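User: Quick sanity check before I run a bigger batch. Here is a single chain. Can you write out its predicted 3D structure?
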Amino acid sequence: MATERVIFTKEMKKDYTILFPNMLEMHFKIMAEIFHQYGYRVELLQNEGQAVIDCGLKYTHNDACYPALLIIGQFIDALKSGKYDVNKTAVLMTQTGGGCRASNYITLIRKALARAGLAQVPVISLNVAGLEKNPGFKLTLGFGKRILYAVYYGDLLMSLVNQCRPYEVTPGDTQKMMEKWVAYLVRELKESRSLNYKMVQKNYINILKDFEENLPRTNQKKVRVGIVGEIYVKFSPLANNNLERFLVDEGAETVMAGLLDFLMYTVNTAVVDYRLYGIKKWRARLMKIAYDFLHKKQLDFIRMYRENSSFTPPTDFEKTRAAIKGYISEGVQMGEGWLLTAEMLELIDGGVTNVVCAQPFGCLPNHIVGKGMMKIIRENHPGVNLVSIDYDAGASRINQENRLKLMLANANREMEESLPHM
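Assistant: Done. Predicted structure follows.
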């Protein structure tokens, strides 16, 4: 039975609280302040644990992909907690419009809310593809530009935290430094009416210098482990059982591409569609302009890394695109598509020969472009250590961690053998 859509109206904007799921804490905390600036009362959900999973299983078909189950579980667990007036609360979810089941999350969420007796809760789609519109929620150019700034800041902080936390002299210093800068950026957003790219550049440089000069680190050599996979499971600690923390606690340094790479991949799909199939010429032209804009900014960030710190900068996305030659076509766009394969190859090319592919158990596209590509990657790069980890409500955490420990044991042994013996 179809679930009637509840429109988020202009009147609702005044006194409704909008909940949205957590995936990237640093990015989303900064984004939340941008929503506040544009008159929305938003709250980033922090509830996690078995109660969230149980809610997802109760109100979602068990064949739904794991990210959908977790997001729905997080929404319903929060709405049933008593913390919110369910008649004055809405939920927000991003929607790409691609061929992945993620584009159907909006419908899945509505059906689950109805099953839970919460059909009155509006579900807002955050998208740039014109899939759904709500009179009370509009993504304007200025709004979108500031959201993009949050992506820049979040990617920078995530990269620096990953490069510093395994080597910090005093445990906890990296977390304190990150929290200091998130608080500063949120405060700046509250106080500044005219945030512009020059201010972003200045902050970018100051953050790089602060982490470089004021965060003491050891010179100890550690195994570097790349993390790739389905975007939600890759980034969300709730979905991947705190994968990053586990690897760091086991003595590794984690390496991940940022959210900007996924945005560039998404924008580039329209350009590729026109090149391969001759469809949507006008959209391809517009997206080519957007891609060139994002790429230029990425090159700016790479330059700032090199001029102001010793940290490893992000990889030029054009190099990432080129890495797939001879492996997979840019026409493969379901789920994370060719980008997932490219990220594995990019990591290996950068000397990160231990890679974890985190994917939902039922995600067919990611099994193809992730696990399915590992054989040929191993053949062309002997000695690489690629491990595919499936995440699902019924998956054993102990089995996941044992496989990771085995990978790390092999990696540590190879690293010790490669070191010169005195």
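The two ends are 72 Å apart (CA to CA).

User: Great, the batch can go ahead then.
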